[in-house]
Amino acid sequence: MATVKVTEQKVILCGEYGVGKTSIFRRFANNTFVASSDRKSTLGLDNIDKEYVVEDRRIRLQLWDTGGMERVASVTSSYYKFAEAAILVFALDNSTSFHLLSQHLLDIVTYAENAKIFLCGNKSDLESVAPQVTDVEMEQFCEQCHNLISGIYKTSCKTGEGINEMFEDIAQHLVEANRSRMELHEMDKDRFKISYIDEAADPSCLC
Amino acid sequence: MNEEYDAIVLGTGLKECILSGMLSVSGKRVLHIDRNKYYGGESASITPLEDLFGKFKAPSPDESYGRGRDWNVDLIPKFLMANGLLVKLLIHTGVTRYLEFKSVEGSYVYKSGKISKVPIDQQEALSSDLMGLFEKRRFRSFLMWVQNMQEDDPKTWDGFDPFNNNMSALYNKFSLDKNTQDFTGHALALYRDDDYISQIAILTIRRIKLYSDSLARYGKSPYLYPMYGLGELPQGFARLSAIYGGTYMLDKPIDEIVIKDGKVVGVRSGDETAQCKQVFCDPTYVPDRVKKVGQVIRCICLMDHPIPSTSDALSTQIIIPQKQVGRNSDIYVSLVSHTHQVAAKGWFIAMVSTTVETKNPEVEIKPGLDLLGPIKQKFISISDYMVPVDDGLNSQIFISTSYDATTHFETTCLDVLDIFKRATGEEFDFNKVKHELGDEDQ
Ligand SMILES: Cc1cc2nc3c(=O)[nH]c(=O)nc-3n(C[C@H](O)[C@H](O)[C@H](O)COP(=O)(O)OP(=O)(O)OC[C@H]3O[C@@H](n4cnc5c(N)ncnc54)[C@H](O)[C@@H]3O)c2cc1C
Ligand SMILES: Nc1nc2c(ncn2[C@@H]2O[C@H](COP(=O)(O)OP(=O)(O)O)[C@@H](O)[C@H]2O)c(=O)[nH]1
Ligand SMILES: [Mg+2]
Question: Where in the cell is it found (chain B) (predicted)?
Fold first, then answer.
C-alpha cells in the first residue's frame, strides 16, 4: 500500500538516562520490551520510520533515540536539528527525572526551535507501586511552560499501554501543523481518524 | 569511568570523532572523552555569537548582529569536495542522514590584483579573462588529455608516462605558461605550494580529476558546505559511535595517560582511571609526543555584504596563489552566510587563512582582507601546526596532526585512514557499516 513516498517527520526522544527512551524506541520499532538494562540490544539502530494515516493523509514518523549519549555527556546539538517533534520523557517512579525536564526543554527550544513538544510520563505500570509524580504536577509543569507542550501522555513500555495512542496523537498533531502551514486544502471540520498501517510484514524492516 | 575499554579517544574534533565512529563500528569498546563542555574542539562551530565575541575577549555584539543563536561560526574554514574522501566516508557510514548540504556557489582565483571566476563549463572558459586565446586552446587540450587518461591503460597516455615523469614535463608537453600552471596547480589541483611540480605527474592528475568529478556532481563548484556549520560533522560521527555503543564523557579533564613498559594502559582523570589497550588523541592531549612544524593564521570576518566582484554569491572560495603575491604558500578566502544557518539574516562570514611565513602574520593575510570590502568585526587567531613524533606502533598512542591550512578535508581524511590502519593493522572496511543501519533511501 505504501508506494507513494511520504516525507518523514523527525521525532526525537529527550530526557534523563534510564527513563525508558530506548524502550519507547524499541516498542515503536518492533513492539518488544527488554526488562534488563541491556543497552547493547539496540546497537546499530539509528532511527525508525513508521507510517500513520490521519484520515486521508499519510504521514511518516521517523523516531530518533539518543544513542545513550546523555548517560555521562550531553546529547549533541545536531541531534535536535530538523526535528518536527520532541518527546520529553520522564519516569513516573522517579521524581528527579521529572524535575530535570526543564533543562531538556531548554535544549529543545534552543536547538529545535520549531519542534512541537510532547510530555510523556513513562513506567506507568510502576505508578501504583512507587508513585512519585502526580497528574497535578504534570499539569502544573505544562502551565509553567506557557503552553509549549502540545500533548501529555502516560505510557508503560513494560505492558505497552499508551504507546500507540501517543504516537497516533503525535501523528495527528503533525498532520494538523502541516495542513495549516502549507494551506494545501481547506481545513476539515470533521474529526480526524487515525489508523496505523502495520508494517510488520515489510521486509525492509530491520530486527 | 573505572572500566576497561579497547580504545579511549581524547578530544572530539572531527578526526577523533571519525576515528571513534570507525572503531565502534568495527566492534571495539570505545570511551570518548573531551575536556571541554561541548563537542567538536577546534572543529566546533561557535554559538551563540556572544560566545564567539567572548572567546576573543571582544565586547558583546550590538543588536545589529541579530539574534546571537542564529550564528554558528566555524573556527577552521573548510569545504567538502563533492566527490572527495569525506563525502565517501559520510555516505558509507550513513552519517549523511544527520546533515544537509549546500553547493558552494563559485570558486575564484586571484590574478594580477583582481579575482576571476574559475570556469565551470566551456562557455565560461571561453569568456574567461584568465588566459589568452591561444593559451586557452593549449589548456583545453591539456584538460582533455587529463580527462581521457586512464591510469591502468597506457594507450590513453598519448606517449606521456605520468608515473615516471614529473608535472613540469607534463606542463611542457602542452606548453602551458606560468600563469596557467599557477591556476592549474593551485585552483584545480589545490596544492598549497609548488613542490608538486617536481613530483610525478600522476599525483597532480588525480587531483585535477577529483576536482572535475566533484564539479560534475553539482555543477556550480566542486565544494559542499553543511547547514549549521562544520561543527555538525564531528557531531554526526560522534552519534555514529554512540549508536554503535561508544560511551561519551564531556567536561572531563585528563590528568595522565598511564604508561607501563612503554605502552599505554589507561587514562586518568582525578582519582579515576579507565583502562585501555589504545589511545587516540589530538596533539593537545600529548604535548610531549608532538612537535611544532609551523603556524596557521586564520581571520574570521563578519560582514553585512557579500564579497565584491563575486556576483553577490552567498558562498564562495577565493584562492590567492603564492606567486601572485610573492609568497611560498597560498592564501585562502572562504565565505558562507545566513543561507547556511550560520549567520543572522543579511550577514556573511568570511575567513582568510594561510600558513605563517613571517614574524608579522597579520600583514601576510592583507591581500585576502583587501578583497572583502568593509569588515564589521575581525577575529584573528594563530595556531601551531603540530605533528606527532610518535607513530604509536610501540606506545599504542595514535596522534592526529593539527588541521592544516587547506580549504577542504582531503588531508583530514587521509590522516584518519592512516591512523586507523596503523592502529588496527587493516584498512577500514567501508562495507561493514552500511547495511546494518537499516537505511532504505541510499
Ligand atoms: C577549471 C576549468 C577551467 C577550464 N578552462 C578552460 C579554458 O580556459 N578553455 C577551454 O577551452 N576549456 C576549459 N575548460 C574545459 C572545458 O570546460 C571543457 O571541459 C573542455 O573544453 C572539454 O569540452 P568537450 O566539449 O570536449 O566536453 P564536454 O562534452 O563539454 O564534456 C565532457 C565531460 O566533461 C565534463 N565537463 C565538461 N565541462 C567540464 C568542466 N569545465 N569541468 C569539469 N568537467 C567538465 C562533462 O560533465 C562531461 O562528463 C576548463 C575546465 C575546467 C574544469
Ligand atoms: N517497569 C518498567 N520498566 C521500564 C519501562 N520502560 C523502561 N523500563 C526499564 O527502565 C530501564 C531503562 O530503560 P531505557 O529504555 O534503557 O532508558 P533510556 O536510558 O531512557 O533509554 C530498563 O531497565 C528498562 O527495562 C516501563 O514502562 N516500565
Ligand atoms: Mg537509551
Answer: Cytoplasm
Q: Which residues have C-beta within 8 Å of that of residue B159, sequence separation ≥ 6?
A: none
B97 touches chain A (CB under 8 A): yes
Strand ranges, E, within chain A? 8-14, 47-54, 57-64, 85-91, 116-122, 149-154, 194-196
**Rg of chain B taking only CA atoms, in angstroms:** 22
Enter the C-alpha cell of residue B353: 587563512
Q: Which fold has domain B4-43+231-291+387-441?
A: FAD/NAD(P)-binding domain (3.50.50)
**Which of A45, A79, A110 has the CB atom closest to B239's CB atom?**
A79
- Give the residue from chain B lying closest to A65, CA to CA: B243
pTM comes to: 0.83
A8-33+45-184, CATH topology level = Rossmann fold (3.40.50)
Residues from chain A contacting residue B236 (CB–CB below 8 Å): 78
Quote ipTM for the complex: 0.77
pLDDT in tens, chain B (442 residues): 778 999 999 999 999 999 999 999 889 999 999 999 999 998 999 999 999 999 999 999 999 999 999 999 999 999 999 988 899 889 888 898 889 999 999 999 999 889 999 988 878 888 888 888 899 999 999 999 999 999 999 999 999 999 999 999 999 999 999 999 999 999 999 998 899 999 999 999 999 999 988 998 887 889 999 999 999 999 999 999 999 999 999 999 999 999 999 999 999 999 999 999 999 999 999 999 999 999 999 999 999 999 999 999 999 999 999 999 999 999 999 999 999 999 999 999 999 999 999 999 999 999 999 999 999 999 999 999 999 999 999 999 999 999 988 888 988 999 999 999 999 998 887 666 554 443 333 3
Q: How far is Cα B338 from Cα B343, in angstroms, rounded to an integer?
A: 4
Sign of the C-alpha dihedral computed for residues B292, B87, B202 and B175 taken in this order = negative
Q: Is 3.30.519.10 the CATH number for B46-105+293-385?
A: yes
Q: From the list B99, B244, B249, which residue is nearest A43 (CB)?
A: B244
CA of residue A17 to ligand 3 center, whole Å: 7
Residue A42 to residue B245: CA distance in whole angstroms: 9
Residues of chain B with CATH 1.10.405.10: 118-218
Nearest CA in chain B to A78: B232
Interface test with A, best of B35, B233, B239 (most A CBs within 10 A): B239
